[in-house]
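quick one
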Amino acid sequence: MRVLFVASEMHPLVKTGGLADVTGALPLALAPLGIEVRTLLPAYPRVLERLQDKKPDATIKALFGGTARLVSGRTAAGAHVLALDAPHLYAREGSAYGPTTGQEWPDNHLRFGALGWAAHLIGLGQAGPWRPEVVHAHDWQAALAPAYLALSGRPRPATVTTIHNMAFQGLFPGPMLASLRLPESSFAPAGVEFYGKVGFLKAGLHYADRITTVSPSYAREIQSSAHGFGLEGLLRHRAKDLTGILNGIDRREWDPEHDPHIAAPFSAASPAGKVANKRALQERFGLKVDDRALLFCVVSRLTHQKGLDILMSVLPALVARGGQIAVLGLGDTRLEGEFAAAARANPAQIAFKAAFDERLSHVVQAGADAIVVPSRFEPCGLTQMVGLRYGTVPVVARVGGLADSVIDANEAALNDDVATGFQFAPDSGIEIADAIARASTLFAQPDAWTRTRHRGMRADFGWERSAKKYAAMYRELATK
Ligand code: ADP
Ligand code: GLC
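structure w/ adenosine-5'-diphosphate:
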């Protein structure tokens, strides 16, 4: 069965966050289940550079102000990509979304409207011979695809919209409607309109046959005003079509036994290499080399969502207990400044690298004892799953996919030998400090700590389980 993924990022071609990890890995997990996925991706310069086995595919005339061609190709891991080569929209230096990280191109409505438009043409069989049975849009950048298909009035493939983050909705001024080739009649609450604006995600949630998000807890949370960002009513209305399917991690990409980026291989069965990685991380980040210090890490975008400002406020408590922390993060400049200053004041215990560096993220995950993820909300979160695999015990806020992937080391869980990490109530420095204290206490009991760490390493966060759920959904949709 044929499925078209539509997305603005895909690892290893272009990545700013977990969306890319998902679109890079899930198609590979679906292939053995008989689901043939092609992913429609904007042909940013680096996508064309990195794409392998490139072949020209269909041409799309008059795509929002220019001509586009589809370039068919593969990622190194073998995932099939349809790169939408529209130079007037995507041939620009910078990030996928703007001249630099955090900025937006002024024509992003057209850049991503065009992505949805091209997806709808492929869906209708009007762009090349390959015709999907399901069109699966990921996040707001792809979310006009289900709208265009529904509004075409033609026999069309089934559609799915997946929410990776409700905080980003793609909202644009109402008068942009016409340039997006959306009919006047669609500018309504039961359509693309969201409080006087054109809402891309809103459109995807209204028009898609099914809606998914990336964890069961987040599927519940977004139906409340606290996490729904104004779309909770629509999501409650569509609750029977909404499911949460937990993300996985790519077990080949994240494999401490065969990771070319780390100092020494290790696994739960032969864990000895972990300590060499800890020393390597302490050296690389200029921390005091000390096996006995509990070394925390953070690998994150620095945004309000991630709650690192709250973590910042409890660093004094963390270092007072003799702990260390290595932070790899990029984003909010004020927070970058604060972490840099904290590191300058106590370089033996606090280190900060302002970078988005995928290789370095492997070094950090391999070397740390624990990873802190203090998010205010987290649709799924992948770094805690990587942490589990790398024997880096997660200390996480009890929200979204963090709540669904880490088993708190409370007395009952420790007695039953099921704990894998620590959870705390979100949005509170007191709660983070308490979780850090609990982690420190367990770390001081080497046997109990090692058992917790090894249980996490043996837990299964590969994609197979979730891929089966997506495959079942596609099959059910296609028979309707
Ligand atoms: P989000 O998508 O909200 O950023 P996720 O946890 O789902 O959160 O995914 C983040 C992805 O980006 C992970 O693969 C993580 O390793 C990676 N990442 C985040 N920040 C950095 C960074 N500063 N350097 C390298 N990789 C990073
Ligand atoms: C988003 C979310 C993150 C999730 C990722 C992949 O970026 O913030 O929680 O893991 O998408 O689904």
